[in-house]
Amino acid sequence: MQIRLTIKNYRCFTEANPARITIRKGFTALIGINNSGKTTLLKFFYEFRYLLETIKNKDTWEFCLAESTRQLRLPKEIIDNQEIFCNANDRPISIEIEFSRENDSEAKEILLPKKLIFIVERNMSYSFQLFANYGLLTSQRFKVVDTGKSFKFQQTSFTDEEMHQGGYDDYVPVYVEIPYIEFADLLHSLGNTLYIGAFRNSINLFPTDDLGAVRNIQSLHASYFDINVGLTLIKQWRESKTGKDKELIRRIYALQNDIKRIFGFDELDINASVNDQTIQFVINNNEVYNLSELGAGLSQFFLVLANVAIKQPAYILIDEPELNLHPSLQLDFLTTLGNYASQGVIFSTHSIGLARASAEQIYVVRKVDKYKGSEIIDFDNAKSSKYLSEFLGELSFSAYREFGFNKVLLVEGVTEVKTIQQFLRKFGKDHEILLLPLGGGSLINANFRDELQEVKRISDDIYALVDSEKSSPEETLCPRIQDFADMCEEIGIKCHVLEYRATENYFPDHAVKAVKGNSFSALAPYESLKDRTQFGWSKADNWRIAKEMTNEELLETDLGRFIKQLIAE
Fold this sequence. Notes:
Helix content is 35%, strand content 22%. It is an alpha/beta fold. The strands form 6 sheets. Strands 1, 2, 4, 5, 6, 7 and 8 form a 7-stranded antiparallel beta sheet that branches. The protein starts with a strand and ends with a helix.
């Protein structure tokens, strides 16, 4: 299930140029220059959280059918309510949510609504309407039934045409159903977000014995949007690490291990000071540092990860995740964040390279002019990713070398980037090999020679890993893939074609179940994920499943042996 948002007359997005974005699992990037509207789009989910959260309740749907109005509640950061409206006209904000099935495994027997429209008036009252293929659903013709598994909109009255169509006794009432798992949970996840602004050093407090100063600091530094900061976070960290919630304690220690691994520490322990005035890091040989003594990158890691580990949102919304981080840590930071979000990460960035290396979908946000506001357009991944030499230039590969990157591995797409990153991480080599997406199977062919030759001018140590797409072990490679492999060999790129069909065919059953649940099972070696009519999963989940594999399981396969050779050479 996925939803498409269309937002009109909200801040810089006008009625003529609304914000349009598809919300799905995985990573979504917003790229653009300063003041183009990237942050505005992220903050939409924060500012309209109250409205989006109400969707989970039955009385909200009854209120929807009755076409009543309610008053909108906005967060404390908004001083003037009118600032959320577009200043190019005096019309209300319109938020349209359209629904569609993302893959064939979703139940087709359930008739889903077509769209949901919220209207927010300038007096801060709002109403919303639910539409099916045959029109608006109202209380005159439908009632809401909570079945325990879904909200069902059952038809209660009929038109003359309906009553005489084959006789009333033979007429089957129309209904629309909202299943909790597929639909209501997805809508509710829009309100279960955590917004992380671009200014992320609010935790840097200095120890003091002046209790008056402590109280003053505590009153001024409680939260920054969704991020608890200062003494509030320090106290929360202590209570989470030493409290009774065992699952939360496990997450806190997992977070410590993430930071230890990413920054290459041998030992790391993070604790609140006795007086709750600072956070103390005990690193390696019992060297003790207050948080204010650490660099901005490490401080940011702790501040952000501590909040997301405790709150466990559905979506993490973050402005410029690359801030204060050198290139080798940026992708790692994003995927580590993704571990703590059940649905995905939506981020704004100035780095085209980071967006193309991590996001399944990318949007460009740009200003039209001061009267027409901003617009959002899809970024053409296939076309842009074709020019890999340009991509390496955007990533400043020479700078990456200074931070320890010495090889380039080309993989099929962005889902493979994050998946192979997890495999390399198992061997501690994820900061030494730069992963670049080829842009999909359409670019894996012999016509790609000129672009690969350009990449060879930048680095000689280049590898490629591609799917075989075979449906049986006896099947030969299709000409397109075989020609690509032959071309790589001719120009000096070490190319490995997987023995199994694709990367997801290497996942063991326990790893699939750990991420997706006991109803799901591993693919057979040559089974297509697209052909799974039930209990299939999105490729955006592949990296999470890869994380659950053991080193031993990986090394038993040709994929594992290729990775071992890659890191050994």
